[in-house]
Amino acid sequence: MKLVLALFALVAFAPAASDTLAFGPKDGTKLEKSFHQHIALEKRSMTMSIGGRELPAELTENAVFDLEFETKVDVVDEYEKVGEGRPTRLLRTYDALTETETTRIQMVGMPEAKEEKKEKESALEKKSVLFRWNGEKDQFDKEWKDSKGDEELLKGLEEDMDLRKLLPEKAVSKGDTWKLELADVKELFGPGGKFAFQVKDERKEKDSNSGFEDNLKGDVECTYDGEKEVDGMKLARIALACKASTSMSPDEDESVVSMTFEFDLEGELLWDATAGQFVSYELSGDVTTKLQIVQKIPVQNEERELVIDLELGGKVEFEGEAK
Would you give the distance in Å from CA 54 to the centre of its chain? Predict the structure, then answer.
């Protein structure tokens, strides 16, 4: 009996098996990565005022105001040299970069909704950039590889498109959790930094979406969920739960005074623990957006201020994979 109890105690109080999730692909590893971000919003509420006087609700209750944002990014990463926890020399080729913004509006008196679609492109497309780790400055130096480009384009680029910062700092067992500030893991909302998207056939000095990533607030809770089998491969799964907010003031539309976002998201990161490399991630859920538009309009030979306050709601999805 004592032997049975001793064996039971040994099993019950034995330390749980732990796993190490770390970055460490072999030198020369090449991965094709694809990332997709999609936000679809529709009007929940809307008010309008002219000269400080609110207009009747019947003018806005049946109005249509929809927004849709979509970004697609395809790159090829070649890890020429890998150090501890990061590449020390990474060659990245930007195969395809596209972004679209679609607006659909219908107000009282309009026979049908008016849709406007803006297709954007980046001068980075088809170019290659070498990221070289600079230990003295604790940062990656960036330079064009086998091509020439505007040096300003390099400034907004980020090396990490593996979401390495989501990995635990020590060995973990199934059920272990850790929390990160979004300010430290902005790549969760779109790895790679800023791609300087511009509307086709138009020239602007800076990315019209500046501010979205810079103003991110909130945190992401990571939970190690053990192994998940995908297409015959055993991968480490980290469950993600994220509550976040951000704001931006689109540069290309001066009438948009402010735009805020609130996110409630869940998802997962899949990691090849054997190869030490990123496999895929997805994060999706609900988003609420508040938007204020201010314009000057003529009313009875006088200029008055038209203010439109909107609350939009919808779904958002961020995803990526490596092959």
Answer: 37
CA–CA separation, 47 and 63 (whole Å):
10
Number of neighbouring beta carbons within 10 Å of residue 201: 7
- Closest C-alpha to 122, from 99, 156, 106, 148: 99
What count of other Cβ atoms lies within 10 Å of the Cβ of residue 200? 10
Domain ranges in the chain are 18-322
**Long-range contacts of the stretch 300-304 (C-beta < 8 A, 24+):** 304/50, 304/51
Strands 277-299 and 302-322: antiparallel
Cα–Cα distance measured from residue 105 to residue 109, given in angstroms and rounded to the nearest whole number: 12
Say which residues have a Cβ less than 8 Å from residue 186's Cβ, sequence separation at least 6: 213, 216
Would the pLDDT of 272 be above 80? yes
Each residue's pLDDT tens digit, 54-96: 989 888 889 999 999 999 999 999 999 999 999 999 999 999 9
In angstroms, rounded to a whole number, what is the distance separating the alpha carbons of residues 191 and 269?
Answer: 13
190 within 8 A of 37, measured Cβ to Cβ: yes
For residues 283 and 34, what is the distance between their CA atoms, to the nearest angstrom?
Answer: 15
pLDDT band at 254 (very low <50, low <70, confident <90, very high): low
Q: What is the reported pTM? A: 0.88
Q: How many CB atoms lie within 10 A of CB 117?
A: 10
CB 21 within 8 A of CB 167: yes
